[in-house]
Amino acid sequence: MNKNDSNSPPAGGAGGAAYKLATKLIHAGAEPDPSTGAIMVPIYQTSTYVQEAPGKNKGFEYARSQNPTRKALEEALAIIENGKFGLAFSSGVAATDAVIKLLNPGDEVICGNDMYGGTYRLFTKVFERFGIKFHYIDMHDADNVKKYVNANTKLVWLETPTNPLMNIADIAAIAEVVKGKGILVCVDNTFASPYLQNPLDLGADIVMHSVTKYLGGHSDLIQGCLVMNDVQLREKLYFLQKSCGAVPGPMDCFLVLRGIKTLHVRMQRHCENGAKIAHWLRAHPKVARVYWPGFEDHPGHAIAKKQMRDFGGMLSFTLKDDSVANAMRVLSSTHLFSLAESLGGVESLINHPASMTHASIPKEERIKNGLTDSLIRLSVGIEDADDLIGDLERAIG
């Protein structure tokens, strides 16, 4: 796997030429400010724009609809995902919300049975009330998707790797199953980031990110985004972005533009540290199982190796003493791994999905899909790996 290889992005700007990924990340959307020559995109902290005459403006009317800082970020997001159009939202959930609002009552969605709890909550508690039906299935085998496709299917929603069990879905195979049927494929690419995986290249129609995570990278903002190639799809989603108003502010957009510039060097360390800790945990006498797609015996390893450039810094594990009390003891005993929700920042986080990120999923559903009450999830940061291992060693005991 060549970590720097990437398909050519669309034309436009220094980041739009056929550069390798590391170069694109530095230059995507970063045109010098025409009025001052500033190398960084300014923070346009304004709510409205003066017009020369009614309906005659410089391309900007009102900041919910357009903002120059957000526009630069959206161009950058498109470039780094090898797409044509990017749209930024106030959160990953807001971006997900916009995709589901493309649907009508009676439409059906096929989605994974192992997904972020906030997505599950949005689907079950909000959109099921409006007559949209969701099928939660094992997506490890694309043939499982085929079984649920019918005349009402309008969307396939998938995470890969999944949160928190690190299952892998074959994006290209799933896209092929629904090709030509008028069914959109949307991939939550948060765990992989554009550094590791580009779903549009594999046949997806939309890529969603919780930008809060790896793209921002510093645990200091909340944001989401969508990237796509189809202009009509872009116009529909832009209408929803503008009409429903879940847009990010210019300061957050500026912070994401800054975060993107270091994505490649951060992800390299996340991957290196993640691999080292995954192998260390697997060899630990008190650890029962480690969920990480980099292991050759992981059921999705071959697919992950095919569609990803590396295996990331996210992993989960269980202990041989799988009591909730023992898991809670470990979760409360780390010092470098901070006990907190979220992921993808430079600092390492430890998380208890059952009571934190996935608490909105009913226990019987979690257990049925393999998410036990004793599962521990790690977001491995970019600290010294030996220090992180020492922290876990002391906590596990």
- β-strand percent reads 5-15%
Please tally the helical runs, counting DSSP H or I stretches of 4 or more residues.
14
* Share of helix, binned: 25-40%
Radius of gyration: 21 Å
CATH class of the largest domain: Alpha Beta
Strand order of the largest sheet: 1-7-6-5-4-2-3
Q: Architecture of the largest domain, CATH level 2? A: 3-Layer(aba) Sandwich
Outline? globular
What does this structure look like?
This protein has 397 residues and is α/β, with parallel strands linked by helices. It folds into two domains: 14-261, Type I PLP-dependent aspartate aminotransferase-like (Major domain) (Aspartate Aminotransferase, domain 2), CATH 3.40.640.10; 264-396, Aspartate Aminotransferase, domain 1 (Alpha-Beta Complex). Helix content is 35%, strand content 14%. It contains 14 helices and twelve strands. Helix 3 (92-100) crosses helix 4. 48% of the residues are buried.
Summarize the topology.
Blueprint: H1 21-27, H2 68-80, E1 85-89, H3 92-100, E2 108-112, H4 117-127, E3 133-137, H5 142-148, E4 153-159, H6 171-178, E5 184-188, H7 193-196, E6 206-210, E7 224-228, H8 231-244, H9 250-261, H10 263-283, E8 287-291, H11 301-307, E9 314-319, H12 324-331, E10 338-339, E11 349-351, H13 363-368, E12 376-379, H14 385-396
Parallel strand pairs: 2-3, 2-4, 4-5, 5-6, 10-11
Antiparallel strand pairs: 1-7, 6-7, 8-9, 9-12, 11-12
